[in-house]
Design goal:
Blueprint lengths: L8 H6 L3 E8 L4 H13 L2 E7 L8 H7 L2 H4 L2 E4 L2 H10 L2 E6 L6 E2 L10 E6 L8 H4 L4 E4 L11 H17 L2
Parallel strand pairs: 1-2, 1-6, 2-3, 4-6, 4-7, 5-7
Length: about 170
């Protein structure tokens, strides 16, 4: 691993983070939670916020997919997502739901600006992001899809969207 130039936990914690927070609201699967933590570590996200009944570390099923990312990525828990939204908006984050809606922005047409702070909300595996949450967001971002399902597993969707949100900073 040393040959691959991986950061130690200490180096990760002291690194400048991308000003992106992944918000998981009522996500059921511990494996999905662990996967998002691992993705957040990979892209140096500022934090992961866990809301509602989303499982929280420490738990072996989260650890199984996170592979230690719960030790590196800062996280917070909010019983009510609306409390998280209020805090994020007060801190100057642009809050977007990752959801298919009538007026959503296609991810490939959406521009993440390097200097802005983003909070990206991923909802329940079946129900998606709650309408009351969407109503408080700046907008919705949707991953264009051509198949019959028109849905992706949350961990896959998070990987795609978080890559798009952070890639510009990775190549500066």
């Amino acid at each position: 691993m040393q040959d691959l130039g991986r950061k130690s936990v200490e180096e990760f914690k002291s690194s400048e983070k991308n000003t992106v927070i992944a918000v998981l609201d009522n996500v059921r699967s511990m494996h999905n939670v662990g996967s998002v933590f691992r993705t957040a570590d990979s892209f140096l996200l500022q934090a992961v916020y866990l809301c509602g009944y989303t499982p929280r570390p420490p738990h072996r099923d989260i650890h199984k997919t996170a592979l230690g990312a719960t030790d590196t990525v800062e996280w917070k828990y909010f019983e009510n997502i609306h409390d998280a939204l209020q805090q994020l908006q007060q801190e100057g984050f642009e809050v977007y739901a990752i959801e298919q809606t009538t007026n959503s922005f296609a991810l490939n047409d959406f521009s993440f600006h390097e200097k802005n702070k983003y909070a990206l909300i991923f909802g329940n595996e079946v129900e998606g992001v709650q309408q009351s949450v969407i109503n408080k967001c700046k907008g919705s971002i949707e991953i264009p899809q051509d198949g019959t399902k028109h849905s992706l597993n949350i961990s896959v969707a998070a990987g795609i969207v978080l890559w798009e949100a952070t890639k510009r900073k990775l190549f500066l």
